[in-house]
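Recap from last week: sequence in, structure out.
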Amino acid sequence: MEMNFNPESREIPEEEIGEIVFNIDVMLAVRKMSVSELAEKVGITLANMSILKTGKAKAVKVSTLSRICEALDCQPGDILEYRKKGARARYMENRNRFIYSDAEPSASRSQAADEE
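Predicted structure tokens:
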């Protein structure tokens, strides 16, 4: 994927910026915790927690992120992920997460990933 980077402005065009994805559901499963239990521990409404969980949130306070990490006993990188625009997902079973790339994996890389 070629980016239209303008060295004069030092800005990446808005249409090429990826997204931040919350993978709260993965950590909830690992911790055997419900969404409502997490919302209660964090001190936000179930509706707001659902907005975070479904990826519909436009922003999140750092203090809320800190409380989520405390409640789930995890690091921010365990629940946050940057996904490039147009990236393809592939599940890494041994890591319990999806990984994203903007190119098709070659046969040798695909086989290596399967062997990990």
